[in-house]
Amino acid sequence: MANLPPLPGRAHYPGSGNPPGRAQPINPNPAPHVVLGTSVLADPAPGEELIYLAMGCFWGAEKLMWELGASVTAVGYMGGDTPNPTYGEVCTGLTGHAETVRVVFDPHTLPLEKIVQAFFESHDPTTLNRQGNDVGTQYRSALFTTTVQQLQLATHMRDMYQAELEVAGRGTIVTQIELANEAGPFYLAEEVHQGYLHKVPHGYQCHARTGIACPLPQRN
């Protein structure tokens, strides 16, 4: 889609310490999702769940989730210290945030196991703070869960996948898995980033991955 505003450049901060951030959201009035038509910050409806995924550049990660069947997706920043950071601030690596996709889903039509499987298969969880040529803590592998049950399943599937990777001679999974309330708030990213790969169909999409299938757990 033409006439998109230019992406913010990287900010540079002399010395050490985190950018101070701001009290107000950087995207206070987001448009409805360009593909799904839903409010990008909609709360889960009855029977739905919420999870947050960080797997490198959030453009491709969000597209993966809306194509998989999520009810709501949005991109933003999570797991850091700076309140309401900008893209440029996050790109310095000083805010501590990871580029993150907020995903609302109905587990009856899109089981959590399928989301976690797609998460592990669609990036390389063995590379620390890196996905392909994208380097920095903002590109780290992380999975922020909103229930203990999600946490347990994600951890179990990580261990299952690790066993498969070891057989294939691959490295150790470094994915950060923790409860979302321990990781800190999700801050919605600028409007230009929301649904980016629908707006720019041939835009950049990271394709770093192991090539190894992630097994699904057996249901009781």
Report on this model:
By secondary structure, the protein is of the alpha+beta class. Strand 6 (141-145), helix 4 and strand 7 form a beta-alpha-beta unit. Strands 7-6-1-3-2-8 form a 6-stranded mixed sheet. It has 6 helices and 8 strands; from the N terminus they run βαβαβαβββαβαβα.
Distance between the termini: 46 Å
Tertiary shape: globular
Cα radius of gyration in angstroms: 17 Å
Average pLDDT score:
92
Give the low-pLDDT segments. 1-16
What is the tally of beta strands? Answer: 8
Describe the structure concisely.
The chain is of the alpha+beta class.
Relevant terms:
220 residues, alpha+beta, two-stranded antiparallel ribbon, disordered N terminus
Per-chain topology:
Layout lengths: L48 E7 L2 H11 L3 E7 L8 H5 L6 E8 L6 H10 L8 E2 L2 E2 L5 E5 L2 H20 L8 E4 H4 L2 E3 L7 H4 L21
Helix pairs in contact: 3-4
